[in-house]
Write a structure and sequence with these properties.
Elements (H helix, E strand, L loop, with lengths): L2 E6 L5 H12 L3 E9 L13 E6 L4 H18 L8 E5 L1 H13 L6 E4 L12 H13 L3 E6 L2 H8 L8 E4 L4 E2 L20 E9 L2 H14 L3 E9 L7 H6 L4 E3 L9 H5 L4 E3 L9 H4 L3 H8 L3 E5 L3 H9 L3 E3 L4 H10 L2 H12 L7 E2 L1 H13 L17 E2 L1
Helix pairs in contact: 1-14, 2-3, 6-12
Length: about 400
């Protein structure tokens, strides 16, 4: 059985739980270690008791660096009872630093996988700070054998031309983990009944203040014809006062956290549209990502709304699904929803329903394929030493 040591930046992040479940379903034994963040409650992963390395703060990069340094000094003690892993996965840059230290503890022959699903703005900084962070990333990736990322635009805009990393790339899209074939039955169209509003769902990691302001203003101006429903984990550090804003916003409501993937069908079946727009790092990471909510909404029949000139928009336009706004503002949204009728909705839903569900789903076979790929990093190939990383980033 392949033993994976998974180093997590935020143990409460639902994406961490999904990755652990994916690895377990693929047949791996998983040891989970990482940091808690503020008031975030630990996500429950059956059979895995995480090793807590410390506490970090959302949006406080300097504080996180100090925590990493402190943790590296005690890492050997924390991992003393952990059997030597076959592979180490480092989620995000700060965990990559700890992965290098962990690999050294076990003899430096444990391959490291760098899992990077967001490009931090410091990595794109053109000044001294950006150069230093990129140099640190290259240094800590010295022992890495594979880069896992979730969007081809991350490779074409950053990892390929700018990062200086020389790693093969494994694209792991943010698809929905579905381990039961009946768990994602074909959705049915759900136009609103007479007198009821259209509903937009903004679910997941809620960190975009601009999106909140746009949706709040739009819902108010539509005066009950459109309702906006928020669910997930707000990044409170990114908002002046998230709770007060929601409390004072008519036709906009926040319904708290949810279990992923267990609750996805029920929450997406409440809405007709998914807000798949993010301005958190506008023009950079937000323009390049393919968010979880894109795959979740499409799987459960919630039509995605994107903004032009982003990777999400390109994804939708290639498949002729969803709706791409030329600009994300109240006026454009109002024009779209004022002209929307039931037949237009049903036509758009029918196009989405034609897409093969495998576009949206990670199933048991995908899990096994991932673990097999990870296991191969630690094994000789065809009786020879494992191949060295290529001189430039390539897709595998």
């Amino acid at each position: 059985m392949t033993h994976v040591l998974y180093l997590a930046h935020d143990l409460a992040d639902p994406a961490i739980r999904r990755r652990v479940l994916t690895l377990q379903t693929g047949g791996a034994k998983v040891t989970l270690a990482g940091f808690t963040r503020g008031e975030n409650k630990l996500a429950n992963v059956d059979g895995v008791a995480p090793i807590v390395l410390g506490t970090t703060a959302d949006g406080q990069f300097a504080q996180r660096l100090i925590s990493i340094v402190k943790s590296s000094l005690s890492l050997a003690t924390r991992l003393r009872q952990v059997q030597k892993p076959d592979v180490i996965i480092a989620r995000n840059l700060e965990m990559l630093a700890l992965a290098r230290r962990a690999s050294a503890i076990y003899g430096r022959d444990v391959p490291v996988v760098y899992e990077c699903l967001d490009i931090h703005r410091l990595l794109l900084n053109e000044g001294i700070a950006g150069k230093l962070v990129n140099a640190a990333q290259r240094y800590f990736a010295t022992n890495a054998k594979l880069l896992m990322t979730s969007s081809p635009a991350f490779v074409s805009h950053y990892f390929g031309p700018r990062s200086g990393l020389q790693l093969p790339v494994l694209l792991q899209e943010n698809k929905v983990l579905v381990l039961d074939d009946d768990a994602a039955a074909l959705p049915a169209p759900r136009p609103p009944k007479a007198g009821e509003p259209w509903k937009i769902g903004w679910f997941g990691a809620l960190r975009c203040r601009k999106s909140l302001e746009i949706l709040g203003d739009f819902a108010r101006r539509m005066d009950g014809k459109v309702e906006v429903i928020l669910r997930g984990r707000p990044a409170y550090s990114e908002f002046d006062d998230f709770d007060a804003f929601v409390a004072n916003a008519p036709h906009l409501s926040f319904h708290g956290a949810y279990a992923n993937p267990e609750d996805l069908a029920s929450i997406y079946n409440e809405v007709q549209f998914t807000w798949a727009i993010d301005f958190f790092e506008e023009g950079q990471n937000s323009s390049w990502l393919l968010p979880n909510r894109l795959y979740e909404g499409c799987l459960y029949g919630a039509l995605p709304i994107a903004v032009a000139k982003t990777e999400t928009a390109r994804f939708l336009e290639t498949r002729h699904i969803g709706h791409v706004l030329q600009s994300a503002d109240t006026a454009t949204l109002k024009t779209f929803f004022t002209s929307l009728n039931e037949q237009a909705y049903l036509d758009a839903f029918a196009k989405l329903a034609l897409i093969d569900r495998r576009q949206w789903v990670t199933d048991s076979q995908d899990c096994r394929d991932l673990v097999r790929r990870l296991a191969s990093l630690a094994q000789p190939q065809n009786g020879q030493a494992a191949e060295a990383a290529p001189s430039s980033l390539t897709r595998v």
